[in-house]
Amino acid sequence: MGESEANWKDCVEQTIALGPESVTIYQMEVPYNTTLFQRMKDAHSEAAPVADWETKRRWTAQAFERLERAGYRIGSAYTAAKGARTRFVYRDELWRGADLLGIGVSSFSHVGGVHFQNEHEFERYLARLEQDELPVGRALELGAEERMIREFILQLKLGRVETAYFASKFGVDLLQRFRAPLEAHRAAGWLSFTPESIQATRAGLLRIDTLLSSFFRPEHQNARYA
Predict the structure, then answer these.
(1) 128 — alpha (psi -120 to 50), left (phi > 0) or beta?
(2) If you average pLDDT over every residue of the chain, what do you get?
(3) If exposure means fewest CB atoms within 10 Å of the residue's CB, which of 2, 64, 191, 205 is most exposed?
C-alpha cells in the first residue's frame, strides 16, 4: 500500500501542476453488476483488488486538503474548483430536478418525473433500436415524496442542503421528516443542522454515499443495484 499511496500523492501533485479549473475524485467501488464483481464472486472472494474504504477516504481527504492549499474550493463529495465563477451546471440542475435524457447502453435518464434505464445488454439495445423502439429496460414513475427524497439525497452530496428550498418546492420540513437519521448522523459526527440548513462535516462528506440510504423509504432501505 505504501507504493500506491506514494503514487496517489504524485498523481495529486501532477494534477495541481496542470492547473485545471476543476478536479473530480471518485472513491472507486466495485458495483454488483460489473464483470469484476462477477469474477470475484466466481472466485469465492468478496475482497476487491482495490483499496479498502478507510484507505480511500484517507486518500481523498489528503487530496482535498492539498487542493484547498492550492486555491481550490471543495464543492461536493467529489469535486474541487478554482474561482467563484466555476459552476457545474449539469450537476446542479440535474440534482434540482432538471430532466436528463441518457443515450447509450445501460444509461439512466430522468424525464418528467420518470426515472428509467436503457437496456444493459448491447445486442438487446441495438435490436430494439432497429425495430424503432425506445431501448428502455426498466422505468419508475416517482411520486411527490420520492421526487423529494431523490433531490434531497443528491443535494446532500454537495455537503449542504437548504431547508427553505424543500419547504417551498415540496412543502416538507426536512428536520421533522428526517429527524431520526439526522440525529443519528449528528451524534456520529457526520452531519450538523440548523433550521436553515443541513451540512456535512468533512468526515461526513467523505462517506456521504454510505449515509444516503438512511433517508430512503423503508421498502428501499436494503435494496441494492444488481
Answers:
(1) alpha
(2) 90
(3) 2
